[in-house]
Design a protein that fits this description.
By secondary structure, the protein is α/β, with parallel strands linked by helices. The chain has one domain: 3-Layer(aba) Sandwich (Rossmann fold). The protein has six helices and six strands. A six-stranded parallel beta sheet has the order 3-2-1-4-5-6, sandwiched between helices. β1, α1 and β2 form a beta-alpha-beta unit. α1 packs parallel to α6. The longest helix is centred in the middle third of the chain and has 15 residues. It binds magnesium ion. The site of magnesium ion has 8 residues, from loops. The site of magnesium ion (MG) has 8 residues, from loops.
Length: about 190
């Protein structure tokens, strides 16, 4: 039996924090959902690695810098404490941006698998049975293409994506959960089996 840990890949905006501001440009706009720490703590107790995989096209668009993002993420990690992410992967790219060299389409941008491949190179974990949680179809497509168990949360864009766009989906999420805490409780149950 594979003794390596499994991992949970998590989207950021609309999944662990509110995305009501659109682009989160500074720490004041970054608000973890009230249940985020509890949910991530549950996942850590299941002996799972936590990887954040976040599309941050705001860098290509010139809305904020890598330094701004680092400040936001260090605040986030501090708030999470023992439930902090084991690693954070960022895609700064967008074809419609103007900040070079990030104004290109790039495999690192979900649903491309660049960030997943980076995680595989950096960390020794068991892909089979690992998870992806996100609020957009692109998160589900990313997870499915990577061979992960996928959960669409209904926070952020999740409800709208499910209600109005699911006819267009080529991949279906394995599960749909009200929010990250419900998703974590589901994973807890699956891991106990
Ligand atoms: Mg999102």
């Amino acid at each position: 039996m594979d003794k390596r840990k499994k991992a949970v890949f998590l989207d950021r905006d609309g999944t662990i924090n509110s995305d009501e501001y659109g682009y989160v440009k500074d720490t004041h706009e970054f608000q973890l959902y009230s249940f985020a720490k509890k949910a991530l703590t549950k996942l850590k107790k299941c002996n799972l690695l936590l990887f954040l995989v976040t599309n941050q096209s705001g860098i290509a668009r010139g809305y904020y810098s890598f330094a701004d993002l680092a400040t936001i993420h260090s605040k986030m990690q501090n708030q999470l404490g023992e439930a902090a992410f084991d690693d954070i992967f960022i895609s700064p790219y967008h074809i419609q941006g103007f900040v070079k060299p990030y104004n290109i389409s790039h495999a690192d941008r979900k649903p491309g698998l660049g960030m997943f491949k980076q995680a595989v190179q950096k960390h020794d974990f068991q892909i089979k049975g690992s998870y992806m949680i996100g609020d957009k179809y692109t998160d589900i497509e990313f997870g499915k293409k990577a061979g992960l168990i996928t959960i669409l949360v209904q926070t952020g864009n999740g409800r709208e994506e499910f209600l109005f766009k699911r006819q267009e989906w080529s991949y279906k999420p394995d599960f749909i959960a009200d929010n990250l805490l419900v998703a974590a409780e589901l994973i807890e149950k699956l891991e106990k089996k």
